[in-house]
Amino acid sequence: MPREIVFGDALIPGLLVLFVLSLVVLWLIDWVAGRFGLYRLVWHPSLFRLALFVCVFGSLALLLF
Amino acid sequence: MSANEASEALPTPRKPVVNSLTEEAGIWLFVIKTLLAYYLTGWIAMRLALPQPSSAMLTTIIVANRQSGMVLAKSFYRGIGTLAGAAAAFLIVGLFPQQREPFLIALSLWVGLCAGGATLYRNFKSYGFVLAGYTAAIIAIPVIGNPPDVFDSAVARISEVLLGLLVSGVVNDTVFPSRMRDVLRRTARAQFAHFIGFVQRSAGGNVARDAIQNMHLRFVRDAVTLEDLRSSVVFEDADAHARSGHMLLLNQRFMAASTSFQSLHHLINRLQRSGQDVVAQALLELYAPIGTALDTPIEGGAAMRVLLPRLVTARQTMDALAPALRDRLGSDTQASDFDTGASLLSRFAGELHAYVDTAAALQSPALPAGSIERVRFTYGVDFRDAGLATLRTTLTMLALAAFWIGSEWPMGASAMLIATVFAGLFATRQNPTQAAGALAGGYAIGMSAAFVCLFFVLTRMDGYTLFVAGSAPFLAVGLLMMMWPSVAGLGLGYSMGFVYILTVKNTMVFDPVNFINEAVAQVVGVSASAIAFIVVPPAIGSRWLRRRQLERLRRQVGLAAKAPLPGLRHRFESVNHDLFSQIVAQTELGSNDSRSLLAWALAVHETGRALIELRNDMMNGQLPSDLSRLIDRAVEALARFYEGPDAATYLSARDTVSSAIVAASAHVSARPLLDHLQLIRLGLLDRDSVLADYMPAAPMAGEIDHAS
Q1: Are residues B155 and B272 in the same domain?
Q2: Which residues of A are less than 8 Å from B243 in CB distance?
Q3: Where a domain ends, among B519, B535, B551?
Q4: In terms of pLDDT, which residue wins out, B701 or B102?
Q5: What is the DSSP letter of B530?
Q6: DSSP helix/strand/coil, B373
Q7: Taking residues B190-208, what's their average pLDDT?
Q8: pLDDT of residue B39
Q9: B391-439 pLDDT, tens digit each
Q10: Domain boundary among B313, B335, B363
Q11: Same domain for B164 and B219?
């Protein structure tokens, strides 16, 4: 995957695209977890979500570098 | 002995101390969290070398709130508004890169339209609109002299705002989050307990009209509060998000059940007043099983579920009881009145069961499988009010633009920017003139504090840590003020003024002359937007708007009579509740206005619901064409009466309903319709209701029995 994406005449960092993508992934996970109440099993749900997001975004970003 | 007494007495005086300490701790937690988000944002923005770290930092102040859910909801709509505003800025700059007059006119129009759009929504959605308006101005005005810069300006603005939102969101969501979910749960449970308790208590006897009015007020407030909370909590919590549909359904069912409940009590009261005590008594007896079924303590846990089988039993008892009670009545008139009440009662029992069912489902840890009925809470919107907001904001902007061009004031851009921001922020307030005054005052104080901080403290400070140490005490004052209800507006103004004028940058510039010029321009901008609200008075709270809202409330009957049926019941209920709560918020409780309003609201509510049920039954049943024509005429006459109430339309409504009843009683298949029509007729003849003003002076003999 290229590090910068040309959109119109503007260069968009690939990281930004991945960031949005990870937000979508997190939203999907949220939807599933909310449906089945999985976050109840976690001590600090929002911290867990944040950590999960960092993992998702980090591992996707590794594709770039 | 005395020592014993002392130790027993201790908890009582200790309690207020503990309570106030908990309260204080919450306030300080808010201050610390906001400061943390503020400085973290500033630090990251400087590391990333964004052109204006201060606007990222200002974002954290604007979205600051004690409740995490509020911060997230506001951030979400702020993000969307910023993106939309950036797009609009591109378009405007692209269309008029060289002509300043069309440019400023287009910009004023866009800002005005956004301010108008904001009045069509509630909560943070309207905030998103406001933001779309002024973001365009923030991006476009600084590049007016050099259009090609618009792209950089937009990218910078978007990154700054999104960075501020991201940091605020993360800090508020992870550092000692204060959850609104608990508030929502408490509110929903209180609503449930209150409603069930009320239904159970009133099973014993009649409820006075005053009590019904107060109850209606309370129910409407409950329903609207719950919807407000729900719309923010969904951002906070995945569980709440998954339950959002259930919450909506719960609220709709609550509104439906409470409306039927009120109709029922109105009916019983009317029967008692018109000397039909026997019928009223029979209905109360029929009602008794519901009271017994609900007579069980409901506290926490899975207890709501225990009500369900009890309610089913109650309904069976009622079905068995009805024929016996009916046989006891003497005349046909009484029997037909009883039937009307019995069908209303069974409708209410069904709705109550549905409501309890949804509440129990929400309580259970895992959501029941399968999809649920999709409903939405519809708001009552007024396009004329939106037009007024558009006009006011556009005029403010145009006046400032003309002044800027005419005077060639170098600081005109700053004044215009600030005016845009504040005109938008105030547009949706309840009492904008006062809010603008408080904010403008706070703004001036904040800027003075910034002067002291910048030129006496920060000049001696070097490095980010010292900057934090030097400015945090000043900012903490404003944040603390935001938490005291009496000076909240002043505090917000202070914080915004302080942060905005400080314009923190990587390399700080200390220029008192520029600072004072900027301060004067900003004060002019804030004052201009405050003056605009005096010149073009805010529609909110005025007599004119109240009259119009009352008209719209009455026109709801027309909606119930004419609008397409699918989903109409939810639409009718939620628009009714929204309109009503808007008007209530703007009238003084206990005043003449508020009394007539409440009386109208009850009449509209009852008649509208009966009309919808009538139309539903008409759709489902096979009716002879002459009968359905008669009923249609009655429905139309009712809608006409509520749209323009006077003696003539009242008479026509009353007579068409009566003749429809005569026609319907001749058909066996029209039995359910007859009940709804009877209910409407009894409502029309009620001399205690607001309709009494339009009735002929003395009741003619036989008028009451005319159709029965």
Answers
A1: no
A2: 34
A3: B535
A4: B102
A5: H
A6: coil
A7: 77
A8: 92
A9: 878 887 888 888 888 888 877 777 888 877 777 777 666 667 777 778 8
A10: B363
A11: no
For residue B604, give the 3-state DSSP assignment. helix
Which residues of chain A lie closer than 8 angstroms to B170, CB-CB?
50
Tell me which of A24 and B182 has the higher pLDDT: A24
Whether B5 is covered by a domain: the verdict is no
In terms of residue numbers, what domain contains B527?
Answer: 19-178+382-535
Q: Are residues B525 and B555 in the same domain?
A: no
Q: Return the number of other C-beta atoms located less than 10 Å from residue B69's C-beta.
A: 26
Q: Is the domain of B492 the same as that of B567?
A: no
Which one of B174, B240, B243 has the shortest CB-CB distance to A50? B174
Query: Across the interface, do B366 and A37 touch by the CB < 8 Å criterion?
Result: yes
Please give, rounded to a whole number of angstroms, the shortest distance from the CA of A34 to a CA of chain B. 4
Please state, in angstroms and as integers, the Cα–Cα distance from residue B590 to each residue in B16, B313, B584, B595, B679, following that order. Answer: 33, 41, 11, 6, 29
Q: Assign A2 a pLDDT band (cuts: 50, 70, 90).
A: confident
**Closest by alpha carbon to B338, among B289, B290, B281, B292?**
B281
Mutate to test the interface with B, among A9, A25, A32, A35 (most CBs of B within 10 A): A35
Q: What ipTM did this prediction achieve?
A: 0.84
CB contact under 8 A, B241 and A34: yes
* Domain count of the fold of chain B: 3
| Long-range contacts of B253-256, Cβ-Cβ distance < 8 Å, separation of 24 or more | B253/B351, B253/B354, B253/B355, B253/B358, B254/B191, B254/B195, B254/B219, B254/B222, B254/B223, B254/B226, B254/B355, B255/B219, B255/B223, B255/B573, B255/B574, B255/B577, B256/B351, B256/B354, B256/B355, B256/B569, B256/B573
Whether residue B572 contacts residue B578, with contact meaning beta carbons closer than 8 Å, is answered with: no
Residues B516 and B463 in one domain: yes
Instruction: Note whether B509 and B628 are same-domain residues.
Output: no
Q: Which residue reads 């209410």 in tokens?
A: B348
Domain assignment present for B4? no
In sequence order, what DSSP letters do the residues of B448-516 get, joined into one string?
Answer: HHHHHIIIIIGGG--SHHHHHHHHHHHHHHHHHHHHSGGGHHHHHHHHHHHHHHH---SS----HHHHH
**Are B581 and B511 contained in the same domain?**
no
> Has residue B368 been placed in a domain?
no
- Whether B372 has its CB under 8 Å from any CB of chain A: the answer is no
Distance CA(B69)–CA(B71), nearest Å, equals 5
Backbone angles phi, psi at B367, to 5 degrees: -70, 140
Residues B357 and B428 in one domain: no
Is residue A56 very low, low, confident or very high in pLDDT (cuts 50, 70, 90)? very high
Q: How far is CA B684 from CA B43, B317, B677, in A?
A: 68, 32, 10
CATH number (domain holding residue B206):
1.20.58
From residue B309, give the alpha-carbon distance in Å to each of B180, B303, B356, B365: 32, 12, 11, 20
B9 located within any domain: no
